[in-house]
Amino acid sequence: MNGRPAVDGAGGRVLLATRNPGKVRELRALLAGEGIEVLSAGDVPGAPDVPETGATFRENALLKAHALAAPGLLAVADDSGLEVDALGGAPGVRSARYAGEPKDDARNSRRLLDELEGVPDEGRAARFRCALALVADGQEAVFEGTCEGRIAREPRGVGGFGYDPVFLPDGGTRTMAELSDAEKNAISHRGRAFAAARETIVTWARRASEA
Known about the structure:
Structural class: alpha/beta
Distance between the termini: 16 Å
Strand content: 15-25%
Radius of gyration: 17 Å
Largest sheet: 6 strands, mixed
CATH architecture: Alpha-Beta Complex
Strand order of the largest sheet: 2-1-3-4-5-6
Oligomer: single chain
CATH class: Alpha Beta
């Protein structure tokens, strides 16, 4: 399969191009009741780690989805990150490695808070942005979602991952890391992108399993 992962009996399966258990949980929750199995890259021997060399979230998502595409399944990949207005849109596509290698959520958040030291609440506007790519049977589609908010002054909460402990969604007083999974999925950038793609994911996954 030209170096792509082989998945036997992949009827009604989605291969999510991530090793992040938080993202896998989110997709499984969104597809609950559909009878579709969600696999992560970590479940598939030989699944490649794809360098995120694209200039945009959309480009990176498509790179990862195409790299994991294989007969009989739907490959799904997202690229997402945080855009802070006061930092000219940074960290953007560099969100996961903002504080350098190896990537570390706590160090990323600390660098962000350090760079916003002294910036008042009204100047801390930010958004999470997600591009979600689907690839199956030679077809591709991309769905996007955003969540507007601002950067808190210190991390709060133990849930979620990434910048969740320092992100306050618009209209709320709790950070993303203080929300339940259901609350987060209802408003998050990734939740919105997955919700917009849900019908297509179900249709394409079932069709791929029948091919």
